[in-house]
Amino acid sequence: MRTGLADGLVQAGRGAPRAVADRATSVDHFGDGAISPGPMRQRGVSGGHRAMSRLPDSTIARAKLGDDEAFAEIVRHYYARCLRFARNMLGDLADAEDAVQEAFLRVHAALPRYTEYGRFEPWLFRILANQCRTMRARERRRGEWLTPYEPRHDAAAPEAPDDSGGLLRREIERALRELPALLREAFLLYHVEGIDYEQMTAITGARISALKMRVKRARDILRARLQEVQSA
Question: Looking at domain 4-231, which CATH architecture does it have?
C-alpha cells in the first residue's frame, strides 16, 4: 500500500540537483570513445564502461526490514543516475522526475519481497525502465508520440555554447533523441550508466547477443552523425 511515509522518504532522499539531468545527454557522458570515429578505447580508462560505486548489501537488508533511513540512503545513492536515465529516455525533466518517483515507490513496496542480493542495481533499473516504458506508452495513447520525440526544453537547462563543440553536442543529442527506444535504452545503460551486459539482461529481458547488437547499432548511428558534423 502506498503511504505518505514512502513519498516523504523519496522526497527527502533525493538530494540531486535538477541540472544533473540536463548534463545527461552531453557527449561527455557517453563514455570514453563511445562514439569517436576511431576504434573504441579500452573500457574503464577515463570513463568508458566505468565501475559504479555499489551500495552495501547491509543497507539493502536494513531497508528490506523497514529501516526508513536505509531506504532514504538508497534514494540518495541512486537518485541522480535514475533521473539521468529517465531524462534521456523520456525527453522531459518533469516526466523523468515523475518516473523516478514512481519507481522508488514501487521499490519501497516491493522491498519486503526482494531476494536478489548482490543484484540490487539491475533490479532497480528494471523497475525504472519499465516505468519509463509505461509512461511512453501512455503518451503514445494520448497521441503525443506520433513522431520521433523531441524533448521539451526545461527552463533550468543551460544553453549550448555557440561554437563547434556546442554544435557537435547538439547534433549528438539530436541523434540520441531520434534513436529507436530499444537502441537508446541499451546505449544509455551500457555507455552512460556503466551497466554490463549480464546486468542489462536482467533489466531488459533481452539476450546478451541482442543487447550487444542494439548498442552497436546505436553507436554506429551516433558515430555517423558525429562524422557528418565534423566533415561539414
Answer: Orthogonal Bundle (1.10)
Q: Cell 505518505, residue? A: 4
Asked if residues 35 and 46 have their Cβ atoms less than 8 Å apart, the reply is: no
Contacts of 90 (CB under 8 A, 6+ apart): 96, 99, 132, 135, 136, 151
Neighbour count for residue 8 (Cβ, 10 Å): 12
Select from 40, 17, 51, 140 the least CA-distant residue to 90: 140
Cell numbers 523531441: residue: 150
Residue at grid coordinates 561554437: 163
Please, which residues have CB within 8 angstroms of residue 57's CB and are 6 or more apart in sequence?
117, 118, 120
Q: Tens digit of pLDDT for each residue in 143-190?
A: 654 444 444 444 444 444 455 566 777 777 788 888 999 999 999 999
Cβ 26 vs Cβ 169: under 8 Å: yes
Model-level pTM? 0.74
